[in-house]
Amino acid sequence: MTRVQCKHIGLTGGIGSGKTTAANYFTALGVPVISADEISRNALTKDGACYDRVIETFGMDILLDDGTIDRKALADFIFSDQTKRRALNEIVHPYVIATMFERANALRQDQKSTIILFDVPLLFESGMDRDMDANILVVCDEETRIHRIMDRDGTTRKLAKARIQSQLPEEEKRARADYILDNNFSQSHLKKQVAALYKKLMESANATDV
Question: How far apart are CA 155 and CA 197, in angstroms?
């Protein structure tokens, strides 16, 4: 008989690479996507799981007038200081990782998901890639990424480059990835790559148990 195995698939890409766009294409194909960014954002809201510890660590200067965390100010703050960035990761990452696997377990229990996509910006940096059945890397040239970050976040070229350089070099990520999605061309080109990879992943997730 046919036995469907639910596979955990990691999706990552350097900041500005188009990882979120690729994740959205997978979502459109019916793949459940668990987003580390979404969980992290919720954890830093006023009633979020990590809010108090972040304020204790970084002080009141990162707060807006209404008491919410100024995410842009926090990002600029940590990307210019490796020690502060490590401190934030030590607070947020354990919660995000635990929550992602809790959500994956819930999806597995309903027995409707063949593959579950873990959308994680720091997949390799956090070591989560070792817990995946396969890992996908979205790549794009650095200059395009810099302009995307500047346009999206309203930041300077210097800070955009600092964010890129805070992550693992792309060469190391390529060496650890099982699949590469090239986002140096049009969105339709990326969409076609996602569709082809989706088909391959679905085929590999279906094993025959004699």
Answer: 34
What phi and psi values does residue 147 have, to the nearest 5 degrees? -65, -40
Residues 8, 104: contact at Cβ < 8 Å?
yes
Average pLDDT on 24-51 reads: 97
- Measured distance CA(170)–CA(101) in Å, rounded: 26
HSE-CB for 39 with a 13 A CA cutoff:
20
Token digits of residue 89: 């990761």
Three-class DSSP category at 169: coil
pTM: 0.92
Q: Strands 115-119 and 33-35: what pairing?
A: parallel
CA distance 115 to 104: 10
What is the radius of gyration, based on Cα positions, of the chain? 18
**85: Cβ contacts below 8 Å, ≥ 6 apart:** 78, 79, 166
The SS3 call for residue 191 is helix
Q: What sections of the chain are H helices per DSSP?
A: 19-28, 36-43, 51-58, 71-79, 82-109, 123-126, 142-153, 157-165, 170-176, 187-205
Tokens matching residue 206: 């279906």
Neighbouring-strand partners of residue 135: 10
Q: How confident is residue 210, by pLDDT bands cut at 50, 70 and 90? A: very low
Give me the helix-helix angle, 82-109 and 36-43, nearest 10°.
110
